[in-house]
Amino acid sequence: MKSEASQQIDGRIAALGGWRGSTLARMRELIHEADPDIEECWKWMGTPVFEKHGGICTGEAYKEVVKLTFHKGASLSDPKQLFNSSLEGNVRRAIDLREGETIDARAFKALIREAIALNLTKKSATKSRPAARGKKK
What is the pLDDT confidence band of residue 137, given thresholds at 50, 70 and 90? Predict the structure, then answer.
């Protein structure tokens, strides 16, 4: 049985229809091919979010683009230069797909897997740090 968030994403894809709906559906499919255990969430008043050990990316649709924003994209290697938007930020990076454009599926799935690995690294680093102690008065 699909989660409520997955059902909401299904509804968003259906409502978009056309090239934006099919592009978002294809990117969602690639995300799950990269790792079938990725969780789907519905956040920020209607944004599909994909998570595993933390946020990976969002999948948004605008009039001219379907945008996949990677939460920690600036920390990911991008040898195939898929990131083409939000390049000036210190944390996020995005992939904008326009009507008729395709993506290198293998490279995209590699980015997804690298984002998961980064989440795991950050999570284990946080666990291994000693707890902060309060200041003495």
Answer: very low
